[in-house]
Amino acid sequence: MNVQCPHCSAPNPPESRFCGACGKALPSALPTRPVIIGEKDFATSESGRALQLDELHRRARTARNILFFLAILQLLFAGALTALGASDATGRSNGLLVLGAAVGVVGLLFLILGFWAGRNPLPASIVGLVLYATLVVGDALASPATIIQGAIIKVFIIIVLAKAVSAGVRHRQLKKHIAQSAPSHA
Questions:
Q1: For residue range 117-173, what is the model confidence (pLDDT) as tens digits?
Q2: Would residue 8 count as lying in a domain?
Q3: 148 lies in a domain?
Q4: Is residue 159, in this structure, part of any structural domain at all?
Q5: Relative to the CA of 121, which of 84, 100, 164, 169 has its CA 20 to 30 Å away?
Q6: Cβ burial 70-94 (10 Å sphere, 16+ → b, else e)
Q7: What is the Cα 21 distance to its own chain's centre?
Q8: Cβ-proximal residues to 117 (8 Å cutoff; 6+ apart), any chain
């Protein structure tokens, strides 16, 4: 089936890119689509850079939200421990109150890291991961029986923190590229 030139109405073979009669470009038989870039590629167009800037902000929010989630989790756990310690009449209440206070301090640290991650997600996420890993290892050294206690939750939290670090790495890459490709106004 021939392709009709939209400029001069001359018939052309289907594989033709230019009209044989007038020489103007023929419409392509294949529809054109936006070029999809990979995660490690960077956009060159203004609209592409705008989309990557949105991605930059989304990555920072991901890291921030993970740290806020962990802060809330720690603070809720601290509240539960404190409530149990306050209602315990057996004499273990002091230990539960101290543990609740310690977990609350960790929750506040994660809250601070969450605010920091809004501006600089990579170092905040790394500090959060190191802080949590240090607490798990310290707890295991103090009482080896605690290694198995809550193992699924510990692994889940470490995976979530690793995801925050990954988001921080991508944020840093995008930020660096956007800074390098920004047009200079000289």
A1: 988 899 999 999 999 999 889 888 988 888 888 888 889 989 999 999 998 888 888
A2: no
A3: yes
A4: yes
A5: 100
A6: bbebbbebbeebbeebeeeeeeebe
A7: 55
A8: 60, 63, 64, 67, 124, 125, 164, 168
